[in-house]
Amino acid sequence: MKILFVAMVLAATPLVSHAETLDIKTGAWEVTLKTLMEGMPIPKEAMANMEPAQRARMEEAMRARSGKVNTRTHRSCTTQKDLDRGQLMRSEEPNCKRKVITQNARHLEFEEVCTGPEPSKSHFKLDAASAERYTGSIDMLRGDGKVHVDMSGRWLGATCKEGDDD
């Protein structure tokens, strides 16, 4: 679901150019996301713009997922440029502002507030256990819902393959 993907790939702007970068390897990563949704994490305005049948399907899908953990594993590609620019997590929304709470070689924590057309507020934490493994979480408030994501990453190798998320 695009909304959940956006929640997990938060970062259109650099974090802090002079801050220490997260000490993880570049290349291909296997990322597992465990997502728990509650309520309706789609803004009322977006729901109001849907055709009645589409809105009913969306509401039913959200009710069916609410309170249940959805697990997804995918490959992603991390470059040195991503790390240098603080863009390990990318956002598809241009109207987002970040406030870095902590950033060092082993820990990254920030808050992000996105204004319309789909406003949200997120808190992101990532801990690098080593250069080849990390865990993290995202808590997002959006619309009339909450999204919680637990994530883990495992380094696969220095070379990314075609089709790895960029």
Describe the 3D structure.
The protein is an alpha+beta fold. It has one domain (2-157). The protein is built from 4 helices and 7 strands; from the N terminus they run αβααβαβββββ. It has helices at residues 2-8, 44-48, 52-65, 80-84; strands spanning 27-40, 69-78, 96-103, 107-114, 120-130, 133-142, 144-157. It has a 7-stranded antiparallel sheet. The model is unreliable at 1-18 (pLDDT under 50).
Side by side, the strands of the main sheet go 2-1-7-6-5-4-3
Low-confidence stretches: 1-18
Inertia-based shape: globular
N-C termini distance: 18 Å
Could you tell me the mean pLDDT?
81
The biggest beta sheet is recorded as:
7 strands, antiparallel
The total number of structural domains is: 1
User: What class do helices, strands and sheet pairing give?
Assistant: alpha+beta
Helix content: 10-25%
Count of discrete alpha- or pi-helical segments spanning 4 or more residues: 4
Give the radius of gyration.
16 Å
Write down how many β-strands occur, each being a DSSP E stretch of 2 or more residues: 7
Sequence of secondary-structure elements: HEHHEHEEEEE
**Proportion of strand residues:** over 45%
